[in-house]
Amino acid sequence: MTLIHTNDIHARMDEFSSSGIDCTEKNRADRRCFGGIARIKTLVDSIREKDPNVYMVDAGDEFQGTLFYNYYKGNVTAEYMNAIGLDAFAVGNHEFDDGPAHLGNFIKKLNMPAISSNIDTSAEPGLNGLIAPYTVFTKYVLRFGTRIGCIGFITRTTPDISAAGRLAKFSDPAGANGPVQRAVDKLHSLGIKRIIAVSHNGLEDDRVVAASTKGISVIVGGHSHSLMHKNSSLAGVRATYPLPVKNAAGEDTYIVQAKAWGEWVGRLQISWDAESKLTALNGDPIQLTMDIPQHNATQEIVKKWREPFDAIAKTVIGSTPNAMSRGSCNGIGCAIGWFVADTLRQSYKSPANNPVIGMTNVGGLRSDIAAGDITVGTILTVLPFPNTATTVPMTGAQVVAMLENIALTQNSDGLRADGKKVTSFAQYAGLRAELDSSKAKFARVSKVEVEVSEGKWEALDAAKTYEIVMVDFLSNIGGDAILPAELVKNYETRQMLSDLALEYVKAAKVLDIPAAKFQPGVRFVAA
């Protein structure tokens, strides 16, 4: 059989630049546009014409990332997924961004099963009965039988990085007695021993699942946006394709993933023998460059989808002389992070004249900003979530505890003392500090300073009160586990972050952020 796989499309319905934002005429002239569902359609049709017994799966995070999602909230995504002919869809964390009931309504529109073995939805009325642990493929008559089991699983950190609510329960997928292995055992009891899994769990955590289970031939991954390819000299390659991992039975389980956004589509040919042992595994992901033509009818549909929001999205509100990339934001201050954090800081004046600090989680920055015009669409693509500003009063000691949490994102298991995993670095305006990842956990923070007025910095006072402006995802939900647990509560919410950012850019006219604003910032330092 041939397995086509995608992951982390993030609503990239139309072609995009190398940084994931809308393709410009210059990008087209330079032949630097990628992906889009019209190219996916061309490629998938071509593979189906050439290869027998083709199945197609998606490893989650179809939601969130462009105005196609902001405007349609998944309706056109469901239309695309049905039209392309997916055989299974593993739910991703971003599918929960608008809550469980919204995801449930989306799943009801799909022609393929939504799968995840480590989500218990029995107490969640919006999802109960809609997500299966696995599905069984029976479409083709293959050698030695027809049935192939396909198990889904998702990152257990989903409640901390989405709006999944409190009723659906997410368990660790790994382990000899974990939900993935139980699904394998159930399939074996049904006489099905040719098994693949589709995961929204991340490459490194997929390795753990592969090593701690048995009976799975291939794990199709997502979540970490990992490019896997046999050609290790390609820019950005994280691992070979497919990647073998010794499983609990001492046999190889193979992992594949195809980066993100639909820039790459995976194509893997799999053969089993009469004993359901792998006999052949061949393939590589295919990059959707402009050498692959767009399917005309599909592209016309994409253009029609664009019409309701395109004029507003193209409204120019300012400009920037320098590109601002998210890629530089993990572990050191960055321009785009400072811009968003300062947007929050400037939105609030302390009634008690306490120093005000702005903070944003790096995971909330969903796109880059190119040099040149900044449009409404630019801001809504960078900040697509419906997050609102909140203010959290914190003592200096609590600020240090918060920084100790983000210091867990390098050279550690990421686990706080309470077992919660910190899943994002943070960017600040008005705060700088050094983080030393060579030191023991919870003793990594030093040289913490606060900007008490423009350009004037003072050492943090452990007993003094500071006011940290952030979004409700961090303060009210405890998202990304950045905030100390005792500070997570229902704070008053104000304006939406995206609205604040639009006003910030309009007021600035030119967003020219000197490096001194965001560097050194809060950053990791060499030991």
Summarize this entry quickly:
It contains 15 helices and 28 strands. It is of the alpha/beta class and 527 residues long. It folds into two domains: 304 residues, 4-Layer Sandwich (Purple Acid Phosphatase, chain A, domain 2), CATH 3.60.21; 211 residues, 5'-Nucleotidase, C-terminal domain (5'-nucleotidase,  domain 2, Alpha-Beta Complex).
List keywords for this structure.
527 residues, alpha/beta, Purple Acid Phosphatase, chain A, domain 2, 5'-nucleotidase,  domain 2, 8-stranded mixed sheet, 24% strand
Distance between the termini: 50 Å
Number of strands: 28
Helical run tally: 15
Strand content: 15-25%
Q: Rg, please? A: 23 Å
**Chain-averaged pLDDT:** 96
Low-confidence stretches: none
Q: Number of domains in the coordinates?
A: 2
Estimate percent helicity: 25-40%
**CATH level-four homologous superfamily name of the largest domain:** Metallo-dependent phosphatases
Q: What's the CATH C level of the largest domain? A: Alpha Beta
